[in-house]
């Protein structure tokens, strides 16, 4: 789960004032430091004695954890709140919160109208399973209770004064309250209500739980004015050519009027679809068949609209989002520096000499230093990273005894470096024969030979499939294919065993490729044993349609699918392919927020679609026109349940033949239904797809520096592009902390 800040991306805490300090005030005289914890955001404070070393260390540990996870440090810092804070951000709690949000969103598939049917085609659809009243409502109420606890804990940790400044937390609270009221109404009506308003609000839970999605929404909001200007230009272009088309293609002159320019809505729809090229060249054929000069109208419309204005929109979005990822990482980097600086200040400002002290520098100014032994204890206090580099750097200062602020910060710069995973040592064998075998089976050539065997297996499967492509499952003789698969699976088992012999269990499992390989090998072996138990040993003229748990053909097909999937093991061993695959993985990591926003948009439009069009289309008894929704048999694409609505929206987003859906729903409902589909096209296909392309270009440009030292939290952005925050900025942020007041 993504780490989320409590203040929705804001680094600023409550406003605070600080004046100039004299040297004695900053200088570490006993009692010269005072910290106070505000209680519930009021002016009361609790003085802490200088001897509270355990609390100081606990605060430093939490601040460092905040720095590592890029969280805001603007939260309560008293002992009880710190324990609650660490519990809240523990892995199991965050995973539980993520599962709760997922459960709330997935309820739409089970709620009425249920998506639990094999087919969504109304001609063949069996009655879907409808959950009894109270089942989904009980699950939903449990989830709402958990989310209520979540917002209460967040609000307490940042303080009620900060809660009043956080629009996201206020919205979170309002959405929960509306959901509870709608839930009560639903239960009181025995689940027979037509509209469930809370279904429309559920995606908000996903948005508020992701800081990346919040940042993305902010960037989209910033881009909207220029996007709106281009869309307005597109609308003007569309209206202008619509009027020209209605003048050119008048009634009784040709078939173009009858099919595409009968009236204003029909003309607008035809040219809008042409803008997406979905009905090209169908829309111009009636006129073009009479006079080739009519093609000029349609070509001019497409060149200006599709190739100029639409690509201009992509360029504008890209221009607005240039540097978006860099700004996001800059904010995260500032949070890391602020958390580390806060931890250092908490420790060194203590009057206890065992934690920190002041030493004179050559410039006669006082320099704060920290005990190196204490730093080692801090690094060992929590599992900050699978990498041990920070601990190794900290041990270098152990002999000196103390480290200054720059040295303290430098230790955590090691987190930005890639960790080299150390594999367990090879097992030791006393026998010379076993040692030679171990050398052979651990050699890289064995991996290359295994890849060649996997390629040969895939080629054999392809050959058999080509030979049997014209045969039905009843006519196929799977004896040869089963014998071939058996031989290859035995080799895979042999390869796994000798690798375990050469590397040992721990060494074998320390390689991800081996885990992938071994899992599929064990699965293939289990399926093969199941086939033997069910259908005995291979023999000629096996009956593929014979049924046990699965038919023989289904089992063999599953085995072949796993073998083909296992062939992906060659990707890490081909350098260029591995680079492309790693780039794709980086894209997936960096674009998760945009995928999440797309999920939110899909969810909202699917709910609206069910409200507006559920059960609108019925299979007709009479003949239908060619090229229509009915003739193309698009019956499974409907708004009769949530699952079918998601697929229909995906089909419209692809814009291939989307005019069939617009035409069908305008005929079965009203012409105003076109507004729904046009809005979906604008948001999904025009805005989001162009946004996606722009971000891929942004990420790809940054990947050109892949060989440079890069930050791990966004692997594609290089450290040289990140600006180091100044000491004044960090000190100002610390003075504005709403719950931590330091005297320097």
UniProtKB/TrEMBL annotation:
Residues 1-15 have a biased composition (Low complexity). The chain crosses the membrane at residues 87-110, 169-191, 227-250, 294-318, 444-467, 479-503, 515-535, 555-572, 593-613, 675-697. It is a multi-pass membrane protein. GO terms for biological process: calcium-mediated signaling; endocytosis involved in viral entry into host cell. It is found in: Late endosome membrane; Lysosome membrane. It catalyses: Na(+)(in) = Na(+)(out); Ca(2+)(in) = Ca(2+)(out). InterPro entries: Ion_trans_dom, TPC2, Volt_channel_dom_sf. Keywords: Calcium, Calcium channel, Calcium transport, Endosome, Glycoprotein, Ion channel, Ion transport, Lysosome, Membrane, Repeat, Transmembrane, Transmembrane helix, Transport, Voltage-gated channel. Residues 1-50 are annotated as: Disordered. GO terms for molecular function: calcium channel activity; intracellularly phosphatidylinositol-3,5-bisphosphate-gated monatomic cation channel activity; ligand-gated sodium channel activity; voltage-gated channel activity. GO terms for cellular component: late endosome membrane; lysosomal membrane; monoatomic ion channel complex. Residues 130-321, 458-698 form the Ion transport domain. PANTHER family: TWO PORE CALCIUM CHANNEL PROTEIN 2, TWO PORE CHANNEL PROTEIN 2. Belongs to the calcium channel alpha-1 subunit (TC 1.A.1.11) family. Two pore calcium channel subfamily. This is Two pore channel protein 2. It comes from Astatotilapia calliptera.
């Amino acid at each position: 789960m993504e780490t989320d800040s409590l203040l929705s991306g804001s680094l600023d805490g409550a406003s605070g004032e600080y004046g100039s300090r004299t040297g004695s005030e900053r200088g570490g005289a006993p009692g010269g430091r005072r910290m106070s914890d505000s209680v519930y955001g009021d002016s009361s404070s609790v003085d802490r004695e200088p001897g509270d070393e355990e609390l100081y260390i606990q605060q430093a540990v939490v601040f460092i954890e905040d720095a590592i996870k890029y969280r805001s440090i603007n939260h309560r810092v008293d002992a009880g709140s710190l324990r609650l804070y660490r519990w809240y951000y523990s892995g199991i709690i965050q995973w539980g919160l993520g599962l709760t949000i997922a459960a709330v969103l997935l309820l739409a598939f089970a709620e009425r109208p249920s998506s639990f049917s094999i087919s969504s085609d109304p001609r063949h659809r069996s009655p879907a399973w409808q959950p009894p009243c109270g089942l989904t409502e009980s699950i939903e109420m449990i989830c709402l209770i958990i989310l209520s606890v979540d917002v209460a804990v967040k609000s307490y940790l940042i303080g009620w004064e900060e809660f009043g400044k956080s629009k996201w937390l206020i919205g979170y609270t309002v959405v929960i309250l509306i959901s509870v009221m709608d839930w009560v109404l639903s239960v009181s009506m025995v689940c027979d209500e037509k509209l469930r308003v809370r279904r429309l609000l559920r995606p908000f839970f996903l948005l508020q739980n992701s800081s990346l999605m919040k940042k993305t929404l902010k960037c989209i909001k910033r881009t909207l004015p220029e996007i709106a200007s281009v869309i307005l230009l597109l609308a003007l272009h569309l209206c202008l050519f619509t009027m020209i088309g209605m003048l050119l293609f008048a009634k009784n002159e040709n078939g173009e009027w009858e099919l595409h320019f009968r009236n204003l809505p029909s003309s607008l729809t035809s040219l809008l679809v042409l803008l997406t090229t979905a009905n090209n060249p169908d829309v111009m054929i009636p006129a073009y068949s009479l006079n080739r000069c009519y093609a000029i109208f349609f070509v001019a419309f497409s060149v200006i609209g599709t190739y100029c204005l639409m690509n201009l929109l992509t360029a504008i979005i890209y221009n607005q989002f240039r540097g978006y990822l860099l700004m996001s990482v800059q904010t995260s980097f500032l949070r890391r520096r602020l958390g580390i600086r806060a931890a250092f200040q908490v420790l060194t400002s203590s009057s206890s000499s065992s934690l920190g002290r002041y030493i004179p520098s050559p410039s006669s100014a006082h320099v704060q230093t920290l005990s190196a032994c204490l730093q080692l204890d801090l690094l060992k206090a929590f599992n900050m990273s699978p990498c041990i580099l920070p601990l190794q750097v900290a041990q270098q200062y152990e002999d000196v005894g103390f480290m200054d602020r720059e040295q303290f910060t430098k230790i955590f710069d090691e987190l930005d470096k890639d960790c080299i995973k150390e594999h367990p040592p090879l097992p030791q064998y006393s026998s010379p024969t076993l040692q030679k075998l171990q050398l052979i089976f651990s050699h890289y050539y064995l991996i290359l030979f295994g890849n060649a065997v996997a390629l040969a297996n895939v080629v054999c499967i392809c050959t058999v499939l080509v030979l049997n492509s014209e045969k039905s499952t009843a006519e196929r003789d799977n004896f040869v294919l089963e014998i071939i698969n058996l031989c290859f699976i035995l080799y895979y088992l042999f390869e796994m065993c000798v690798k375990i012999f050469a590397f040992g269990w721990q060494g074998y499992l320390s390689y991800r490729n081996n885990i992938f390989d071994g899992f599929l090998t064990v699965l293939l072996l289990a399926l093969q044993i199941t086939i033997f138990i069910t259908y005995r040993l291979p023999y000629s003229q096996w009956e593929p349609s014979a049924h046990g748990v699965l038919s023989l053909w289904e089992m063999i097909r599953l085995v072949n699918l796993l073998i083909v999937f296992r062939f992906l093991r060659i990707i890490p061993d081909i350098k260029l392919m591995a680079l492309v695959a790693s780039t794709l993985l980086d894209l997936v990591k960096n674009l998760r927020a945009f995928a999440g926003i797309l999920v939110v948009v899909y969810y909202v439009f699917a709910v609206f679609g069910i409200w507006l069009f559920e059960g609108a289309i019925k299979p007709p008894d009479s003949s239908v026109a060619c090229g229509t929704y009915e003739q193309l048999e698009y019956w499974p694409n409907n708004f009769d349940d949530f699952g079918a609505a998601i697929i229909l929206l995906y089909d419209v987003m692809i814009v291939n033949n989307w005019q069939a859906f617009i035409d069908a729903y305008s005929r079965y409902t009203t012409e105003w239904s076109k507004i729904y589909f046009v809005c979906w096209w604008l948001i999904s296909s025009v805005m989001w797809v162009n946004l996606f392309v722009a971000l891929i270009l942004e990420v790809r440009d940054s990947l050109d520096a892949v060989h440079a030292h890069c930050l791990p939290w966004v692997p594609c952005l290089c450290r040289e592009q990140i600006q180091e925050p100044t000491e004044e900025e960090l000190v100002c942020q610390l003075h504005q902390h709403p719950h931590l007041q330091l005297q320097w």
